[in-house]
Amino acid sequence: MLAASVVVFAGAVGLLVVAYLRRGVRGLPFFGERESVPEGMVLVFGIGVPLVALVALFGVSDVYLVKQTSPPNPSTTAMTINVIGHQYWWEMRYPGTPVITANELHMPVDTRVNIVATSADVIHSFWVPALNRKIDMVPGRRNRVLLYANQPGEYRGQCSQFCGMQHAHMAMIVFAQRPAQYRAWLANEERSAMTPTTAAARAGERDFMNDQCASCHYIAGTPAQGFIGPALTHLADRTTLGANEIPNRPAWLAAWIRNPQAIKPGVRMPDLGLGDNAIGQLVAYLDGLH
Amino acid sequence: MAINVTPQGQQHVERLERVWTERPGLVGWLTTTNHKRIGILYFFASLAFFGAGGVEALLIRTQLIGPNGHVLSPAAYDEVFTMHGITMIFLFVIPMTTGAFGNYLLPLMIGARDMAFPRLNALSFWVFLGSGLFLYVALLQGHAPNSGWFDYVPLASKEFDPGNNIDFYGYGLIFNGIASTMTVINFIVTIFKLRAPGMSLNRMPLFCFAFLAVAFALLFALPSLSIACLFLELDRQLGFHFYDVAQGGDPLLWQNLFWIFGHPEVYIIILPAFGIATSIIPAFSHRRMVFFPLVALAEILVAFLGFGVWVHHMFTVGFSSLTYVYFAAASLIITIPSAIQIFAWIATILTGTPVFRTPMLFIVGFIVYFIIGGLSGITVAAIPFDQQVHDSYYIVAHFHFVIFGAAVFPILGGMYFWFPKVTGRMYDERVGKISFWLTFIGTFVTFFPMHIVGILGMPRRNYTYPPGLGWSLLNFIESIGAYLLAVGLVLIVANLVVSRFRGAPAGRNPMEGDTLEWSTTSPPPPYNYAVIPTVTSPYPMWEPQDREADDARLDRGEGVLPEGHQTPATTVQDAQLDEILAMPPHSAWPPLLALMITGVFAMLLMHHYWIAVGFGAVCGMTLLAWHRHGVEA
Amino acid sequence: MSPPPSDRMVWFAVLGGAVAWTIQFVINLGFTFAQCDQPIQRWALPVHGWEIGLSVVAAAVTVAAAAASLRIFLRTYRLDHVAEVEREGRGEAPPLGRINFLAMIGLTVNFLTLMIVVLTAIGAPLLPVCQQA
Amino acid sequence: MTGSGASERVHGSDAPAPRSAAAQVAAASVAARRRSQPNGWWGMALFLCSEVTLFGTLIGTYFYLDFDAHAWPPAGVKAPSVVLPLVGTACLLTTSLPMALAARAARHGRRANVIALVSGAMIVQGLYLALQILLFRHDLRDFRPQATAYGSIYFTLLAAHHAHVLLGILLELAVLWQVATKGLTNYWLIGVRATALYWHVVNVLAVFVVLTQLSPTL
Lengths: 290, 633, 133, 218
Description:
The complex is a heterotetramer. Chain A is built from eight helices and twelve strands. In chain A, strands 3-2-1-5-8 form a five-stranded mixed β-sheet, with no helix packed on it. Chain A has a three-stranded mixed β-sheet with strand order 4-10-9. Chain A has a two-stranded antiparallel sheet with strand order 6-7. In chain A, strand 2 and strand 3 form a beta hairpin. In chain B, helix 14 runs antiparallel to helix 15. Chain B is globular and about 75 Å long. Chain D is built from eight helices and no strands. Chains in contact: A-B, A-C, B-C, B-D, C-D.
């Protein structure tokens, strides 16, 4: 496609250059002023050639290739992952397991993964450029797309349909892992949340369950059953916070809890106005959720 | 109009001067129904909006000049990029082309003395101005629309956008649509009925074909947008459920309705550019367009096929591939009319003896950029490729090459081309050429890197981006290009402003133009032509015997129509003389009615529905008065 | 040219193909939306069958319009090379010039709309009816 | 005929220049000699093109939502009753005849006939509108536009058409008033023709609207 474009462009510009060089002279080189020649040119380059090229392009891309890029029948894929778009983060659910996580999608390499993309609020678009095309996440539709990685590694994905103020910070990381690592990760994720060990962490858990936190967040095996915000069951195992916005370290986590709006203006999580002590305890608790 | 006026001819001219004298001063401009004055009003209004949209563009580029920029807050950025889109499309390109160029030139080119409905013409300007101010009041209040010019629901629904930002959008676009609908009805009737006797369809200048196509496209595209906005406001204000999936609505309904309008819109934006190009190229190439009928056809056909391609804006929403094929087929074939035009232009320049003065340079730049934009357009008609680059900066690059490179360049070229006709003075050629190269290079530097950054995965409409993704340098280059471009545009305006006062006198036809407007004085008199011109070809200025015939007829006082504001009406296909129309002179009703309509929308916005109904009733009464004091013919 | 073709004939020659494609397009679209855009299948439509039928009809109408414009074109062309005058944009006197002009437009329009009709007809049956793209 | 030939006749006798404003005879003679439709007629025709597109969009939306739905009309809403809407529409259709005759009478300068025919048509149209408003309010008691998408499009579609009927009646009132006071001047002669055209289109639209409205039952 690129080559053809370059040829067409070069040809057209070339003709313009010729026109400039012969600006003093009527008619064409060799052909002179016969009107039929430029008219033939219009017919050939204006209708004939494009028609052939376009029909070819149509056959190849819109009939043949479309079949390749359309999502395959789920029965032919090894596994399915449901991805639900939220303003401004991603929820991942692994059917057949209790696993609910956010913003970091783990999948095995060399495996055809069937992504089912839906939305909890506005229209988002699921796009991991390195792994496949994009698919919109439209309320009320269950769109599907195939994800396939032949190299282990981290692949960046980002929402590509304008979804509000923090559209720019709605990113995710896809971890394509060797099957063994993936199984280990999944096994860990399937466990309920760790019970806190230190006193600070226990205090943090209490605050979490009593404050507003529990009404929006989900932590498996605890009273926290909210799904407004990301699930935190194994928060400590994630590498970033706020949909790939900041690194997942205690200092950053504290800053985030202190005032999320300062880090990510427009994010749904409110400024809870907690004291340093309470924040410290919450961080201690959340940071223990491996 | 006669080239050399004899004493006998002079007395007829003086009679016309008496009949067509215009009111002086501000009142004259407020109550004018003269298509040239209205065109000039359109020009300055849309130029002002162009400035606003340009500033918004510079803000965007400044924000994105480096990673994690914080010139604008996220909220402000959303409003700015939304208003940039709305402004450039609804408040600049359309009013500048149809409003300014069309209004001023169309009646001149077809040898008429005014538009078919002069007062309606004035009304559509004042309504357009009202809608533009309506939208900008929103920005000044800090409540500008903020979910993109495409305004997808549910993001634009009350639940996720509770302020009145979106209401400004919904009402504003319906409001603006009223103005456009009135304009295009006026255009079509003018082209159908007011062509000078003898100007049958096959003798109509290509400029007029382009504007006829635009008018029809707008006429059939706008209702879809108005309905979409009506549904949106019903949902937001009265709790209807058109777009609410929970109650059986469908957010994709908005996308369908919006793009049924939105894609024809793209061609509505580009077609006037074709028209301007097809009038500049022959003039500077000193020959007729190659294959006239095919070029005329291409202009019409683009507008028609444009209605069959809208879903290619929705290739990623998950419709069935079968549905997509219908649109892919049309989306590919629609490139052929454009190809026909491009090669007709090139062949004309090639076989003619082109002179590359400033307007011509802009047209050459237009051809180059239109090819780039067209080629990237073909690539996104390939569904799998589009599904990769959709909503990335690749698309931004594509449509800016089409809309800025291909639609605005001819507008700029046209400004230079017709400047002498409108002002009677020449622009500065040297500064003109410099301004061209600045804009040309600026455009390329601004928009070409966007292809790459898009393929690298940068999505559109992000108020910022993280470092380390390979996007930063390219964005920096783009921003520099944008500033360069701005300088070029300012230079154009400066050139025209200075030339307006210092320029050398232009004479009737400094551009060796081929259409009728060049036969009258610069600037043209209020009645355009002392005699209704003789037309026997689409290039009247290249038929000297016809122009001599005009002189002779002026001497005999034949076809002068001096009693009252008169212009002949002809049959639709073959332009045989049918009747003599008396045109209404100046009228105060249009601005008044526009004011009332503005009242209606303002009250709707403030939820004073009964007051809005009251304003509506007043509009009705104004219309009655309008028709009671209508001219009688 | 005796007698000149009726305006009705001329305008059929110009618009026939366009109208045919429009109808094919709208009905096809209605079918896929009806068939595919609903959570539960309320009816099973023979989409492919309809498509082929429609395409045949649309193509036939388009060809007829093309034939009409060709006939008009030739009839006007024979008379002192009107077509040449028109091609060069010299504007032969109406109605003859205008009719020839429209005939040339009709030829191209019908050719291109026929292409769209055919592409749709070829592409559509090769794809599954409700496969999400 | 060639262009120059045409414009030589710009002052020729067959090109009727307007005489004094309210001269009905002149108006009628202009109308009689006209070879193509006047500007006013074209203006109305094009306006109606945009109105037809508008209704096309509304009807398209109706079926788009229909195709989306589990059940249409949704559970709890009974399918619309057929008889009254159809009868009403049939009556409305008949008014195309008097309007067409009125346009013809106007072209021949028969002022009295115009007034009689238009008023006659207007009475039927008024009755139709009254009936439709009753039905509309009755429907509102059964289900509300705020309830479901079905209600939203149902009432929007009908309201849009009723609004057009009302507008048509207002047009007729204006025309009657002007023709009665000022006579069949050229300006208002064209006004009558434009109004007639408006009504023909509104009547045809009525058929499509009512068929859409009743589609769940039919």
